[in-house]
Design goal:
The chain is an alpha/beta fold. The protein has 9 helices and 4 strands.
């Protein structure tokens, strides 16, 4: 059964853009996606189904056993589609060990950006919500620590935030090749390339 393509990163590092690219390439990244807002005018492309389950567990609104049961049902539905699929939710970083128990050979797309740029972007984007530089550092550090701990053992491609915008076509083709997407139609390639736009000021 198809294993997922999981887009990961601490946030504010290009995960939304990469998930959007995969969407344009024909990868199923969710039927209900978090759309655009003031922090990301191009859309977040976060799968609401995974996001809501992850957030509920981290808030302790769900027991681990109930979260695991619901996630496995969701994964079964995605696999039953019989097509390339995956998801993006930065909270996945916090739950990486738990997710790895569900898969034998997942594909990871890790988005990377200079740490100080990530933290500055968090503060800019969420200043009105009270985010501080210390909180931004802690968020980034904890999530990247989990990625560094587990991803070396799994198929992973790194997509650099700045390089992606400088060489859009090569970025798209590198994802097609690495994710094994096969013969993608030319119009999908073009749409994916065009989706990679200059980072908005809030980023």
């Amino acid at each position: 059964m198809p294993e997922p393509i999981i887009v990961v990163g601490p946030g504010r590092c290009g995960t939304s853009c990469v998930a959007g690219v995969l969407h344009h390439l024909g990868v199923f990244v969710g039927s209900r996606l978090v759309g655009a807002d003031e922090t990301n005018p191009y859309g977040h492309f976060e799968d609401c189904d995974f996001l809501q389950l992850n957030a509920a567990l981290l808030r302790q609104d769900l027991t681990h056993a109930e979260w695991s049961r619901r996630v496995q049902l969701l994964i079964a539905k995605r696999r039953a589609l019989g097509i390339a699929w995956g998801w993006k939710d930065p909270r996945t970083c916090n739950l990486l060990r738990e997710y790895l128990a569900f898969f034998s050979d997942p594909i990871f797309v890790r988005c990377v950006r200079a740490p100080d740029h990530i933290e500055a972007s968090v503060v800019r984007a969420y200043y009105e919500r009270g985010w501080t530089a210390d909180q931004a550092y802690t968020l980034r550090f904890r999530r990247e620590r989990e990625l560094d701990r587990y991803l070396p053992w799994y198929r992973t491609i790194e997509i650099d935030f700045d390089t992606m915008r400088k060489d859009r076509e090569e970025t798209v083709w590198s994802l097609v090749r690495f994710c094994g997407l096969g013969n993608v139609a030319a119009e999908r390639i073009s749409s994916a390339v065009d989706f990679i736009r200059p980072a908005p000021a809030s980023v």
